[in-house]
Amino acid sequence: MSKFNTARAPTATSPVRGEATPSTVTHEGGAGYARDSKSELFLLAVTNMVGEHAFYESADTRDTRFAELVRQSTLDDPEWTARFLRWLRTDANLRTASLVGAAEFAKARRDAGLDGLSRQVVADVLQRADEPGELLAYWTSVHGRAVPKPVKRGVADAAAKLYDERSFAKWDSAARAFRFADVLELTHPVKRDDAQGALFGHILDERHSRGNAIPEVLKTLRARAELMSWDVGRRRELFTRPDAADVLRAAGMTWESVAGWLQGPLDARVWEALIPSMSFMAQLRNLRNFDEAGVSDTVARQVAERLADPAQVAKSRQLPMRFLSAYRAAPSLRWAWALEQAIAHALANVPELAGRTLVLVDTSASMNDRFGKDGSLLRWDAAAVFGLALARRCAQADVVSFSDGYWGRGTKVFKLRRGGSLLSDVERWKSGGFFLGGGTDTAGAVKKHFAKHDRVVILTDEQAAHGDVGHALPAHVPLYTWNLAGYRAGHAPSGSGHRHTFGGLTDQGFRMIPLLERGKKADWPF
Fold it and tell me: Which residues form the signal peptide (predicted)?
């Protein structure tokens, strides 16, 4: 009898691995499944805004756990950790977590007396010109003033790659503990060419008030200095000229610097001169300002075309929730279609699923937890975005908001409208009373709404209060958990046996579902 050459599909596995039976409890007291260290690190990192409190964890507790997991992973599997941190900064676009992770990677290697990898890991995660100083500030505040050579060399590599006239004008500031000159003096990067060498010299001259003229080769900084020398009363006259946009671009003037330069409001003429040189992210975050200033429909159409361009969306690496935030902030509807297109492009990895899918969105009190200090986006916002995006791609989907009924109903069914849009769905979710509050009876919601579906997808922080979610539906039915908080204990097994956990604030994890349903192994996304 054949043991291996059979028609039976292989058992599908996924990378986030948890134990088969619960050994702990969640923060709400439900059955808790511990995960291996890589899985715990991954789920925490992809949901972690460093220095921010979470509903069940203080910022210090969360940050300490993250640092400890990075150090453990570095010692256990440094190559995996190096790939992960590079991916975290690039594809996941999580800046601070990857920066802290790189510093802790280097610290773990140094403490263990190990050579290699740290320089490259540090250089890989530093991708914006303010980040070399940011990493040094983190290192010296946490690990002391002595910066080891691999960290210095990685920072120097990044500075040589990132420092140019425009980045110096944009990011150098007396408000920062480590200015560009401090980075240069501590790490001694090797200049790319003579022009960058002249820039490095000028940066040091400025830092130490030596009074030397700006070198001729630094044309952007010379043009900027010329504009700064204008009398305040003359500056607004620039925007009566047809070449205003070119003048601002040549001088490396951002919208923030122009606001300070004018010492007054940015009206429509100013914005229209700035828009051609603004980044995708800057345009996305200023839609309200464009409307309030009265930017013309012609210019607005140009902005909208860029926002809706799939190549521009991909290049920008904006998180899907950024488009929801922009949609909510903009007072006019002239951006709505472009933002709908943009968020669809940002969710391109959400698959089309055959059969019937039950989508459960956790709206318990702990999901009313903000991701960042501004509080503009909450965990249930992200859960609704991902859940509704998936539901719209399914052949047939039932979408349910759930908690535990403490404030009333424990669940509420959301009706998808044919021909509707994702952004309008999310706003209808917000305004229609689908945030339920209270505790988290995930197992109860599964049992109540499961009706021979082909799969169940739960978007949650996994902190269930009752029962065992992993055993709340038949073992042969796939259960996919999308984790949005990264707490230590999960609510179900994971990694095999039709129980799988993903996580994060991007759409990349969705690529695993079709693989798993074809019986294939789904690996880490890096």
Answer: none
Q: Which CATH number do you get for residue 442? A: 3.40.50.410
Q: Please state at what angle helix 297-307 crosses helix 336-346, rounded to 10 degrees.
A: 10
Structure tokens at 201: 């010299």
- Write out the residue range of the structural domain in which residue 464 sits: 356-517
- The residue out of 190, 207, 224 marking a domain boundary is 207
Strands 24-25 and 31-32: antiparallel
Q: Cβ atoms within 10 A of the Cβ of 399, count?
A: 26
Give helix 95-111 / helix 59-76 axis angle, nearest 10°: 50
Residue 375, token pair as written in the block: 């509080």
For 113-136, how does the pLDDT look when each residue is reduced to its tens digit (9 = 90+)? Answer: 999 999 999 999 999 999 999 999
Rounded-to-5 percentages of helix, strand, coil across the chain:
50, 10, 40
**pTM of the shown model:** 0.92
Q: What's CA 93's distance to the chain center, in Å?
A: 5
Summarised one tens digit per residue, pLDDT across range 40-58 is 999 999 998 888 889 999 9
For the residues of 223-285, what is the DSSP string, one character each? HHHHHHTS-HHHHGGGGGSTTHHHHHHHTT--HHHHHHHHTS---HHHHHHHGGG--HHHHHH
Of the CA atoms within 13 Å of residue 302, those in its CB half-sphere come to 14
Which residues are paired to 25 by β-bridges? 31
Closest CA to 404 of 374, 436, 427, 432: 436
Sheet holding 499-503, edge to edge: 411-414, 396-402, 356-362, 455-460, 479-483, 499-503
Q: Which of 161, 185, 207 is the last residue of a domain?
A: 207
Tokens of 29: 């007291």
